[in-house]
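quick one before i forget lol
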Amino acid sequence: MHIDLNCDIGEGFPYDEALMPYMSSANISCGEHAGSAETIHHTISLCKKYGVAIGAHPSFPDPENFGRKEMHIPEDELFDSLANQIVLIRFWCRVEGAVMHHVKPHGALYNMAARDRNISKTIVSVIKEIDSSIILYGLSNSYLISEAEKAGLQTAAEVFADRRYTADGYLVPRTEPDAIIEDENIAIEQALQFVRNRNKKRADTICLHGDNDQALPFAKKIYQTFKANNIAIQTI
C-alpha cells in the first residue's frame, strides 16, 4: 500500500527544508499569493536535493489575502495569469536541470475550481497548452479531476488530513470555526481512513500544509504513522 504525500511550500515559512524528508511531492508558490523568483529557485533546488517531485502551486493574483479570497476575473485574464505562473516554475526547473511533475491550484482558486466546471476547464486548458504530460492535483470527486480526465490529462485525486469536509465532499471554508482539524490524532486517523477506504473515496495524494507552526511535527507524525502501518510514501 502506498500514497503520495504533498506539501504546499515556498510560501515564506521557515520549515521548507525540514519538511522535505517527509514528503514525496512539493507544491511551490508561484509568486501571486506568496513567494518570489528567489524562493522558487531555492525551493526547486531543495526538491532536487531531497528527491521530491516538483509542482507549481498557482493562485489568484492576491498576495494581500494569501490567495484565499474568492475572485471573479475574466477567463482570458485567469488563463494568462495561470500560464505565467506555471511557466515561471518550469523555467526555474530547467535552470536546475529538473522536471516539473504536477500542478496544484492554491486556496480560493482550488476551492472554486472544485465546484465550478468553467474554472476547472480554464486550468486544464492552461496545462494542456504548456505540457500535457503534467499531472493535475485536485480535490477528489470534483470538477478539477473530472474535467482534466475528459481532456486526457493524468490526475491525482487529493484528500486532506487536517481539513474537515462538508456533507457533499467539499472542504469546509476556512472562515468557519471548525474548518481546520487541530487535534493531531484526529487528523492522523482521518488520513489513515482515506488510504484504507479508497473504494469509497479516491485518494492518490494527501496534502500537508506548510504554513503553520505545527507543520513539521505533524509531517513527522504522519510519516511515522504511515510507516508503522506499512503505507509507503511515494510520488505518483
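fyi The domain at 2-233 is CATH 3.20.20.370 (TIM Barrel).
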